[in-house]
Amino acid sequence: MQRPIRVLIAKPGLDGHDRGALIIAQALRDEGMEVIYTGIRQTPEQIVASAIQEDVDLIGLSCLSGAHNELFAEVIRLLKVQGASDIPIFAGGVIPAGDIPYLKQLGIKEIFPPGSTIKDTVAFVRNLFSREG
Amino acid sequence: MERKEKFETLSGIPLKTVYDESDSPKHTSQPGEYPYTRGIHQKMYRSRLWTMRQYAGFGSAEETNERYRYLLEQGQTGLSVAFDLPTQIGYDSDDQMSIGEVGKVGVAIDSLQDMEKLFEGIPLDQVSTSMTINAPASILLAMYIATAEKQGVDPKFIKGTIQNDILKEYIARGTYIFPPKPSMKIITDIFQYCMEHTPQFNTISISGYHIREAGSTAVQEVAFTLANAIAYVETALNAGLDIDLFAPRLSFFFNAHNHFFEEIAKFRAVRRMWAKIMKERFGAKSPKSWQLRFHTQTAGSTLTAQQPDNNIVRVTLQALAAILGGTQSLHTNARDEALALPTEESARIALRTQQIIAYESGVADTVDPFGGSYVVESLTDQIEEAALVYLSQIEELGGAVSAVEQGFMQREIRKAALATQRQIESQEQIIVGMNQYQLDNEVVPELLRVDPSLAKKQIASLQKLREQRDNKLVQTELAQLRQAAGSSENVMPYILNAVRAYATVGEICNTLREIYGEYVI
Asked: How many domains does chain A have?
């Protein structure tokens, strides 16, 4: 039997708005995936360490404070340093459209801004692994 | 045939087709009379309109000071300070934890120096200021007092509110620092200090707002907020404080959400419940202790990133519900806040929305106009009833502090949030412009950008302060604070002394972290 997709849902930075992160974590669990939620206020170092230790297939980052450009970039940099940049990343939160090209260029596969649905998020994850797997 | 299978409020209270006298027993109290269902004042907005208080702050103290002066010139009647996250969680701007966050969601305040700049040219005996600050509330209040002193204003005359509601931080908002027990102790210290030194300052704003934003229902918002309020009162009573001395300075903060009638009913219900709790349960004697005074903010979580101008209409309806529910002060959200902090233009439209309701609609000219409405009276009763069920459940868990530690409220909110999301995705709930009536080509509005060089400037100014201040004095004051924190003494006077010596938010919080530890979920 194939092992379920393992996802780390992480909240870098200091904001405590975890409604979206919790909903996505629960929704992916309901889809049969294994989800590890870091809790709020994680440093990029902690997130990368958890991702490697938990051997996840995918990282979801959530940030609603406006610090996404700095913090997501740092997560990606540290993954590279650790030789783990093969782990794909998706992200959500209050992310203005103008920042999306920059974040995608950094290597983030997909951004889910306000108004995104569980349905689209799940479809994205399924699609990602059917294509690559 | 009806257009939906079932009609209900957002809390799931079933709605009948028509209501009549059989649905609403006669309540005989009038506005200004216990239990204040109809409002805490006899004349309400006929004597004085609500305070128009827009939450604002970004970047540096200088920039935010400019926005405040602009808002005051435009007719805003009270200030409301948004602090950045490092300030709210007790880190200095140059702390490793602050990377990317300095000045982003609010103004960066490291020391008294920043606070002095924030209120430059704004006499503190002439405005009332609300500060959204919780774990370090004692420090920011101390800075506000010290700024008043520097302006030559006697702290006895400063008016405003600190949020200071730590329990909802564990439940929903996330800016806690210390564990619950020492946090509750600091809160009681603040109550006690302010009774004597700043008698016109509200010492806490017990907040349902963020509980609702995290996804709760209206009923949960009422119940969890009151449960927290009961815990604060009990802690203060256990410390030996006289209820009628501290209770009149307790204030509340609620959300104005989408279901118009349910929201009006919610404000009326919570007012009545609080009056009964204070009088019957705690035996408060002063009517001031029975009266629930509250601030309202329209629901940020209902704003859509899609077709953002539609948000102006949502905000108008939510604001109207808050006013019909008898709020004491109001923040109306700006149309672009699903995307970023508001631009000056968006912030102005949000303020104008309140002014149009106040001066043009006529709704402020009659007190509690929905009193006697069959549907609103019935919903008022039903919200009270449902919230009481939650309150007794929380009692069984050992009260709010213990229920929070057990994650009870957190779980209930999480369930409600997921249910809402599912309803939106199945289109049981229609959100105009988002899950129906979408546009193919959205025009992206111009958004506020926080100056990216701000963090560097803020750090430079902080480092300069560290060179210029009397560091020996800072160390002495911090040592005395450390000692006080380890005893049962009130920490407020020691924090005030440290602040006066220009100790920073981070230094003071780190001193307290040494004694109290940090809370990790």
From this structure: 1
